[in-house]
Amino acid sequence: MKADVTNQRWWIRPPMPDESLRSVLSRAAALYERSPGQLWASLNRDDPRPPGDVESPSCAAVRRMATAIGMSASHLLLHRQPDASWLLAPQARNVYCPMCWNEDRARGVPCSIRRGWNRALRTTCPDHGCPLRLAPEQWATSSLSHPFQAPVFTQQEQQILDLIESFGEALERTLYFGDPWPSEWRGNPQIARQLLLAVSFNVNEVRDFPLTKYVQVSDNLKGFIRGPLHQQEPVKKLRWDAFRGVADPAIRRAGLWATAWALMSERPVDLSPGWFKLPAHIEVLVRSI
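Below the sequence we write its predicted structure tokens.
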């Protein structure tokens, strides 16, 4: 039987360090056997004003949530993560670091989604350097296996992952934080972003896979770098919000890898994604910018 949450007292731990408000809501929803959307609607049902998204809630919604958890609204407010172009879209913020979750379990605290994992162009945990993974749908329940398997990579595999992360970090800094574009690279930040979209989505005229479907990786890397599993409808207009909506870091890595290979200089051949030149229709698309 579902627990009664009429009084809106959520018997959960207060937010963990850097935990997002969506993560806190998911933990509470799992305890009371509701969806996060249902619990959020229940919490704010008596307020005629819009409560906002849980990541960027109204002041009244923050106060109600803080009361439900049993903490001050000012402290809860520190866990907000308003939408921004360099972040994953709010609904896509569902990734985790297995090493962080192993540490959570060892300390006897709940697993949580950190705000530092929610950057669209970054796919590595800032604390451990571990590749982020797509979180299981029911991650907030207590039924997850433990310990989580920490990946082990060969030197070449780690170099590929490092290339992807360093390129994503540089692209993020130049697009959103004012750093200069590396002089030895082709193009510019805007061309790089457009190329990232062009390789990540179907730009052909018929239903097909994007270029990232054809990246070639070792068996050990298949869970960390891959294209989409299904064909896509042709994209009429490439939009950045579509990439921000891709939760799976493995799919985003494939796009970043293909883009990095096309734009970075002095690339070791053994770090190639499987080709040495972009298809003509994608080159034409990028040159048209």
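The first strand starts at residue 52 and ends at 53.
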